[in-house]
UniProtKB/TrEMBL annotation:
Name used for this protein in its record: CBS domain-containing protein
Region of interest (Disordered), ranges: 202-221
CDD domains: CBS_pair_BON_assoc
Domain BON: 130-199
SMART domains xref list: CBS
PANTHER family: CBS DOMAIN-CONTAINING PROTEIN CBSX3, MITOCHONDRIAL, OS02G0818000 PROTEIN
Pfam families attached to this UniProt entry: BON, CBS
Compositional bias segments (type: Basic and acidic residues): 208-221
Amino acid sequence: MPSRTVGEVMSRNVVRAARTTPFKEVVRLLDRHRISGVPVLDDDKVLGVVSGTDLVRAQAHRAGRRPARAVTAADVMSSPAITVHPEQTVPDAARLMERRRVERLPVVDEEDRLIGIATRRDLLRVFLRTDDDIRDQVTAEVVVGGLGLRSGAVRVLVRDGVVTLDGRVERRSQVPEAVHATWRLEGVVGVVNALTARVDDCAPPSGHEPRARLRRSAADP
């Protein structure tokens, strides 16, 4: 099962603001639609994003100052906008969202025109997969496809999205590979590693230290 793409989970009906939308109208949009932010557009191109945090920060900075000109969405938006393309995978979008500490990602086409928006709620839908679905994917893609083992060589247990890998693989270097590959699958919230290996290919080459001792012995009178 390949990773789902942003285009498959994004919301297509996007509440938006223009760069000239007044401050109070942006507030009304957030309140009316019960959302925490909107993309700011100019000719369908995303210029930035206005969040509730941006609005509060703008008001805080104006507190105690003399009246200024009217404030618009362009004055308070966070810019440039952090966007994604619909072909990007959900895990990649989630990592981008976490790394940049944003709550939503405008989705744009090849010409950077807005076609949707992906929120944390949209991305979290992938975690609604059943434990049985996750177990079947780990067995097929990690155990059989990745490690080249028969399906029963590694016991795969899944409970509430937490995967336990228990069994013996051929080489010790395959253990972190299996854990990492499992962790990247959609719906997995944790991995418990109980794998052992038949061969320790991570250890220093055998015989190195004895040869050093032999050389020292040869140098002795």
